[in-house]
Each structure stands twice: as C-alpha cells, then as structure tokens.
Specification:
The chain is α+β, with helices and mostly antiparallel strands. It contains eight helices and ten strands. Strands 1, 2, 3, 4, 5 and 6 form a six-stranded antiparallel β-sheet that branches. The model has no long low-confidence stretch (mean pLDDT 86). This is CRP/FNR family transcriptional regulator, anaerobic regulatory protein.
C-alpha cells in the first residue's frame, strides 16, 4: 500500500526519525508522492508557497535569481532532506527556485495541513526548530566565509562543506555524490566560472582534489583543512 511505503520512507527523514507509529500515521494521511524528471522545477521563485517537500531520492538545487538573471545557488539537497525550510513560518511565495538535478521522488505535504499536525504533536515542533537552528548556523558560517576569507579560501571552504553534506567516504577521499559544473560551484559562493576553474586546476596540481572515472570530485579533506589553516 502507498501509505505503508510513505511511512517507511518518512522514518528515514531526520525530522520524523523518532516519531511513534501513531504520530507517523498522522503525517502519512496528509502526504503525497511525486516524481520529477531532471531539469524540471518543483517550484519557482515567487510561486505561491503552499507545500513542503521531503526528498526520498534524487538531488534538488535550490537557487535564487536576481533581476538580471544571475544565479546564486543556496544549497544542493539530497535524500532525507526537506525544503523549503522557511515554509512553515512565512506566507506568500517561495523564496527561491527548486530545480531537479537528478530524477527525484518527493513526499509532498500541504503546509496548512502540516501546521495543524504540528499543533497536535508539540514534540515535532521542537525537532523542526532544531533543524531550522542547524540551517541558521550554516548560513551564518557562509556569511562569515564571505566576509573573512578571500576567494581562494572560500573555494576551499566550499569543497570542505560539500565533503560533509554531499559526499561519501571512499578511502581517504570524500567522493561527491553529485556532478557539479564549474559554473554551479562558482554560483555557490558568488565568484566567476573562470576563477573557479583556475582554482580547481591549482588544487588538482597540489593533489588536494581529483576526479574519478565517472567525473565525480574526490576531495582530500585533511589536506584542504591544512591548506586553509596555513592561509589564515
């Protein structure tokens, strides 16, 4: 049954991991499953804010665009994560675009229904606040990187962040689980594609990063951490 499938998948979401079967059933009742193909949009910036999504599989790129069309990538989300995080605390429109990078299966929940569920289960509210707190700290750290570090250091810090959030350990390296173009990496920290390309080539020559046979980045986090330490 679809309800059992959703229930099993929701147990893998950090927000719902410790809920009882009764609490999970309340979430399942208001959930729907949607499948999205690559290069399609879950929603676009300024669309009416109506739903939150939980990723069962696939990769979602969250990014903003300014009046000139310039792209600023906010995050790359994968299995087990939710978006948009601000969905429960604001009204109006989605604050960014959500584009599918790799075919995604999403569990979709109407915000109005989920807010009623939060009222019924206060423990879920506490867990949601913890998740939001982690996201706020991440954004604070990124802001500090922009203010306190030069572009070379920002690129190293970006690679270290991706090694924690979008990678699996493979020997001594962290292997990124998403294909990133140089432009996409550049858009994560607001630099140019050319600067990103030059810096990545430099880091490859120094043996800090590499590409595997399938084009995924291999990151030597230990070496990058030493490099950033010596540049401070």
């Amino acid at each position: 049954m679809m309800g059992d499938w959703i229930k099993t998948r929701l147990k893998n979401v950090v927000l719902f991991r410790e809920l009882s079967d009764q609490e999970l059933e309340a979430i399942v009742k208001i959930s729907q499953v949607r499948i999205y193909k690559p290069r399609t949009f879950v929603f676009m910036q300024a669309d009416p804010l109506e739903r939150v999504f939980f990723i069962q599989s696939g990769t979602i790129k969250i990014y903003k665009t300014d009046a000139s069309g310039k792209e600023q990538i906010v995050s790359i989300l994968q299995t087990g994560e939710m978006f948009p995080h601000a969905g429960f605390f604001r009204r109006g429109s989605y604050p960014a675009h959500a584009e599918v990078m790799e075919e995604a299966t999403l569990i979709s929940i109407p915000i109005a229904d989920f807010e009623q569920t939060l009222i019924s289960y206060p423990e879920l509210c506490i867990k949601l606040f913890r998740v939001m707190g982690e996201k706020i700290i991440d954004l604070q750290n990124r802001l500090e990187e922009q203010i306190l570090h030069n572009t070379y250091e920002q690129i190293i810090l970006l690679l270290l962040r991706l090694s924690r959030t979008n990678a699996v350990l493979q020997g001594r390296h962290h292997r990124l689980t998403t294909h990133f173009t140089n432009r996409e990496l550049a858009n994560m920290i607001g630099t140019s594609r050319e600067t990103m390309s030059r810096t990545l080539s430099h880091l490859k020559r120094k043996g800090f990063i590499d590409l595997d046979d399938n084009g995924y980045y291999l990151i030597d986090a230990e070496k990058l951490e030493k490099e950033i330490f010596y540049n401070l």
